[in-house]
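Support request, please re-run this one:
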Amino acid sequence: MKANIQYAFDREADVLYLSKGDPYPDVESEEVGDDIIIHRDRVSGDVVGFTILNFLKRAGEGLDRVTLPLEATFKLAGA
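Re-run finished. Output below.
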């Protein structure tokens, strides 16, 4: 099943959420880096989303990008 990447940003909590398609209700979460949490489907083990804590605070400290320990393939939807 193909899914678009969705994101939500909670400005008050300073947290960025990203998920492949609609957020999955039943995931296993694991912190894989400094304030970076991945979410895995409990059945398949596939990474279905991630969360970045202190997102704007990181940017304010001069962080111009966040490197995630994930591989990605980009394709244009409908192509």
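The chain has a mean pLDDT of 80. The chain has one domain: 5-60.
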